[in-house]
Fold these 3 entries.
Entry 1:
Amino acid sequence: MDYVLETENLSKDFGGFRALDQVSVKLEAGKIYGLIGQNGAGKTTLMRLAAGLSFPAQGSLSLFGHQGEKELKEERKRIGCMIEYPGIIGNMSAKENLRVRRVLKGIPNKELEDEMLELVGLSNTGKKKAKNFSLGMKQRLGIADALIGNPEFLILDEPVNGLDPLGVVEIRRLLTELCRDRHITILISSHNLPELYQIATDYIIIHKGKILKTLSQEQLDENCKRHIRIQCQETAKLAAVLEEGLGTTDYKVMPDGVVKLYDHLDQQDQVAAILYKNGLAVTGFSLEGDSLENYFISVIGGGQND
Ligand SMILES: Nc1ncnc2c1ncn2[C@@H]1O[C@H](COP(=O)(O)OP(=O)(O)OP(=O)(O)O)[C@@H](O)[C@H]1O
């Protein structure tokens, strides 16, 4: 399978500091990947490497199944990006900004300028200079700018940063439509986790330059659904005890000696007592699940590495 982006053991150093440490990720086409990490985790660094704005110290990177400097240069024409700040020229209108970008990219089709302005909801800004735009308008112009070459892969670093709630909703709608209607794969970083949760189909959690976890929305929902997590080697016996002792079938046996029980959340004492009574050697018993935010904190707090 050709991935839109595939990295293997990608590392990047700044002086003696390792900002990215052996990062291996695979991005499939048509998905929206939420890149989550604290300040300084390495999100922008990873995006800059993917976009060709900086070069790795070690490791490999391929785009659309191609690697090698010459090939990557060609494949990067299929990428649009807005990394750090939207690259906007303040003294120009939205359309003039897009014209500059279009010409720089060597794209002859002038109609794309109006099409992109329409797409991001800026077609009525006329001669207004970009420096007088609101932050939300600037962000949308930045996205239009990234979209001008009809990219198949969009890299957006903090596109909703500083936006008011309505602006956030607008960007969310735009990105969801771009993925659904134009089948654009999106890699997006954001500190706004509740918002990201509404956009992303998949998540990549990065911490201190390392990828701690990649998971799909379904896997996240599974992890976030409130449950009693019971760790026990004898999962078959445990399941039988839950069914017979508690009369429940609302549980799931996980592959790693964990059973998730989705009911009896308010009767943990009763559950524990029944497990004990049946002689089960329980090595972990906790109430888990919740928001993306809490999940993220539990992953980086636990320092998991799978
Ligand atoms: N040009 C640079 N020179 C030196 N250090 C750098 C440079 N760029 C990034 N770093 C360092 O690399 C680490 C990762 O930075 P990066 O910008 O990728 O983090 P981030 O996850 O995008 O953070 P934020 O959420 O704050 O944008 C940080 O410690 C940062 O200080």
Entry 2:
Amino acid sequence: MAAAMSLRLVPLPSRATPRDQKYSFSLITCHSTTTTLSPPPVISLTKDLKPNSNPNPSSSCALHCPHFQSCSGCTHEYNLHQPPILDEAINFFKRMGVSNFTFDTCRLWGWRCRAKLAVRGSSEKPLVGLYEEGTHNIVDIPECQAHHPSINAAVELLKKGMAELNIEPYNEDQGTGDLRYVQMAVTTYDTSLPASERYRNGKVQVSLVWNSRSESSPSFGKLNALANYMWMNGGPKRKVHLIHSVWANFQTSTNNIIFGNRWRHLLGDRDFWEHVGGIDVSMVPSSFGQANTRAFDSLLSKLHKCVPYGASVVDLYAGAGVIGLSLAATRKCRSVKCVEVNKESKLSFEKTASRLPTSMDSNISWHHADTSKDPLSWIIGSDVVVVDPPRKGLDPSLISALHSLSSLKLKDKSPESARKEVTEKRPWILRERESSVQSNSSQRAQEESNSLPETLIYISCGWDSFKEDCKMLLSNKSWRLEKAHGFNFFPGTQSIEVLAVFKRGSGVNIKKKKSGKKKKT
Ligand SMILES: C[S@@+](CC[C@H](N)C(=O)[O-])C[C@H]1O[C@@H](n2cnc3c(N)ncnc32)[C@H](O)[C@@H]1O
């Protein structure tokens, strides 16, 4: 069984030097145990957050993973509460004018609720894991400490099924074999269990990426047999109900894109629900989902506090709209527009929206669109812009649009002129209706306003791109950085998740500019 953890706050050892005492990190020690997973703790390392000196590994939170170094998934073994990048983040934000940067850490093991794993090797001895750094060799990671334990258990079951049914893993060189990848996503939302037991009893939605074009290919029988094996041995009739559902994805391409375009639900519940940000969230396997469900939930709690009640919000790079919809529900937003390029996310958005409280009076819509095309048209009319781009960061056209806002306001003083210039270009008006979804509890027509956003909330999983984007946003003084928080989304890796809140204008100067302009007219 995978190690679980307990966390406890302990006083500093009496031998601690005055220098050590400055670091709030020193107050935390971790103990790896073999007990089952407890509910996820969230620990805020906020007070006196200072760059780390030279932490002593022996008193730190260690990974304890047998695959460390051979597997490329984790890059550091000790002090998991303090990713090495944290020092740099603290210093960066200080330079950008934010000295009260906070960092929330979360569970250190068993945090990954979503994993995409390559399947290679042979049917008798399948390897299911990640690539070894810089090679095309797969490292088998049966005891991965980052995975939710249900993922490791489901992988073990999969391997047994492959061996029994003689299922050949994919061979990259020859393009032969059946099973290429597997995606394992865990739901920890089983309301029949007490809340304290839900996390550790997570159930797995298994997606088998099959090396064929469709259900009509000759190997479909084998695929069905494997799905049935997993269901019979891990489904609801077993003492330990591990498998939530089984899906197939068909992919024959020789490039390294994991999923093909064709999906088929095979067994179990089609609907997959999780509860984050105060709402029930539906996730189809083809849509983006956050890997660290609990840490995402704590990020959403913090994010909610940054959005005024009744605000009009645009959620760019929205996926299935989890962020936008959770804001709609918790902040009673006047309107929420979600913009996403992956059309597969639409279904999840619709299902999630259908479970929102019926009493909500909010215009909610999801748009299948590329944020980089005419981004200004999405931004105008919103009070708050939320961006959660992929690791590569914001599209340059979006940065330019965000830059141009202050000059726009100065130019277009009359609402009529702004409306004339901007409204005609708005994609949610011009695009085909079927590419968007509107969920409107009051049947009120979509409000169109020409207000410009005062708040920009940037959620980032790519530290390097965030730094560049942040510098760009601040460069022409159209935005200022108000606050920033970090989250330990990926313990054991170099990555952190950042939530940064920008306010429009450079502060005092904006007033001077406004009054100067007034005098002229
Ligand atoms: C980091 S994910 C965030 C998803 C969502 N905010 C969530 O938390 O579930 C980034 C999302 O941006 C989408 N995306 C990437 N490029 C895009 C673009 N140019 N326009 C719109 N969406 C894009 C991806 O498909 C993905 O769903």
Entry 3:
Amino acid sequence: MTRNMLSALSLRPALSPVARRWMSAWPSDKKETGIASERSARRKKVTIQHLHQMRQSGTPIAMVTAYDFPTGRACDSYGADITLVGDSLAQVCLGYDSTTKLTLDEMLHHCRAVARGSKLPFLVADMPFGSYHTSPEEAVRNAVRLVQEGGVEAVKLEGGEEIAPTVRRLTSIGIPVMAHVGLLPQRHTALSGYRVQGKDAASARSVYNSALALEDAGAFSVVLEAIPHILGTHITNKLSVPTIGIGAGPNTSGQVLVWDDLMARWHGHKAKFVRRFADVQTEEMKGVSAYVNAVKTRAFPEVVNESYEMDETEWRQFLEGVV
Ligand SMILES: Nc1nc(=O)c2c([nH]1)NC[C@@H]1CN(c3ccc(C(=O)N[C@@H](CCC(=O)O)C(=O)O)cc3)CN21
Ligand SMILES: CC(C)C(=O)C(=O)O
């Protein structure tokens, strides 16, 4: 059975029109119109092979983070090639001040939700801080949980040559690994903040050597975060696996942004590499304040369209029985 057939069975069972009417929260395919949904109708399941073909043909790879069912579903419907359950989850979704606070169980909970919505994009999850550092065995155990319980297809690990044995171990047992070099947010304390990496020759060489070592260890792709664009271009040209940049310039094989950053939904610091493609924060502000105002002024709800009627005789009978 193909994955599409499976997803058709598990996500969208054929409901009778009557059953459908009562499930107001059921995701409706019919509501999706326009280019994006036509595109998704024609799209196939993205695999590692497709990602390598995209790199070969120079077709940019679009990766987006997702943290729950609706954001996962949006990645699926609107053309993302890779959905990443990033550990930025800690900050943008759970309100922690650092990704280092995120536990594996919290990550698993969100992976399951994203996996229910994101079917066609290749699905990757960050291994949380501490879940792959104690030993390759521990990393295998935790990565297996992300695959089995979380429903993801690959894991992403931050680090350089020091994690190459772990990457080798995971890939050897069939768990695809996306490496992540350059700025490593899980090490912000040791690095004294979130700083652009590879700006001097020695640091650039270190980032470059990390990327080479992790490709050699079997990584199917490498994320390059916050490095000079010329270094991003150089690493992309030297590797034979796709690079995904975030603040690594325009010449990487693909780009990734955090959902809340590209939607302008994140209230915290805006890194230089962030471009806001929509303004959800303003829409949320408008929506919530209009709702609160309508409640306070009794403009919401209306009797006619937003309330339920009761048969008059039933109502009289009800009153007769009431003391
Ligand atoms: N909302 C959000 N977006 C992200 O991209 C992101 C998270 N959260 N949380 C986890 C990590 C942390 N990341 C960050 C956080 C801050 C900078 C940052 O402030 N960079 C400075 C660089 C300053 C310099 O070295 O000159 C910048 O201004 O771009 C970069 C990446 C990336 N990830
Ligand atoms: C920004 C991306 C690459 C990430 O690692 C995350 O979302 O945590």
